[in-house]
Amino acid sequence: MTRWMITGASGMLGTELAARLRAEGQPVLAFRRHELDLRDTPAVHHLVTACRPDVVVNCAAWNAVDEAETREDEALAVNGTGVRALAEACGHVGAWMIQPSSDYVFDGTALDPYPEDARPSPVNAYGRTKLAGERAVLEALPRGGYVVRTAWLYAATGHNFIRTMTRLEGDGVAPDVVGDQFGQPTWAGDLAARIVDLARSGAPPGVYHATNSGHTSWYGLAREIFTLLGADPVRVAEISSKDLPRPAPRPAYSVLGHDGWRRAGLPPMRHWREALRESRVLAAG
What we know:
It is a single chain. The chain is of the alpha/beta class. The protein has 10 helices and 12 strands. It has helices at residues 12-23, 41-51, 72-93, 125-140, 161-170, 188-201, 218-228, 259-263, 272-278, 281-284, and strands at 4-7, 28-31, 55-58, 96-102, 145-150, 153-154, 176-178, 182-183, 186-187, 206-209, 216-217, 237-239. The strands form 4 sheets. A 6-stranded parallel sheet has the order 2-1-3-4-5-10, sandwiched between helices. Helix 2 packs parallel to helix 3. The chain starts with a strand and ends with a helix. The relative contact order is 0.15.
């Protein structure tokens, strides 16, 4: 039986992954941020050595995209340096490591979905720190490191776009939503299932793109949410990114390709609309 270790276990992905594994009766050690700080390298090495897991999934991350613009060193300490410490500890005990990453490692200028081997070129500090974490895992664990890029993640817990739009609809708000940024809404439950599949598949180490299939804009996603809630989608107004300036620039097109799964003998994840309907996130509010 596989011994799993999850860091950042109170976040959207960590919560879904721990619940799935426990439902299967798998042994899981799930550590929340206050229980394991990736910035504390000695503590990271001590804990991994003491637990001796077979697979470590690092769900811990600095995800405050805009704050990272002025606090990049702090974000890098978690997303880059901390990830390297965890990867090196995994190497010491012979554990595989799965590192979730982000579509923000790309600049968003592509016209077609980014393949797994596309050259990263982040346009903001957050993307740079996530790329540093990717490289740390692949360098430290060339035979046991997996980078799983995802995007537009949502769940029934935590702060995410789906829950925000659900709340605004319930409050009677007619939101203004950006229509010129395109990506793939991804349910954390589906991502958790895919991570488990990856660990069991015998797929070669490397980079995989784990997003729900299809793509849309934030505006298109908001309209879909309103429709599924039984509200009039016309209440959602489309605006440009220029109308909503933020400290960190966002890639305009960060749709990810899924050829890596086919090479590994696994199907791509299901369409984002199907996942949204079946996720029960809307019902959870």
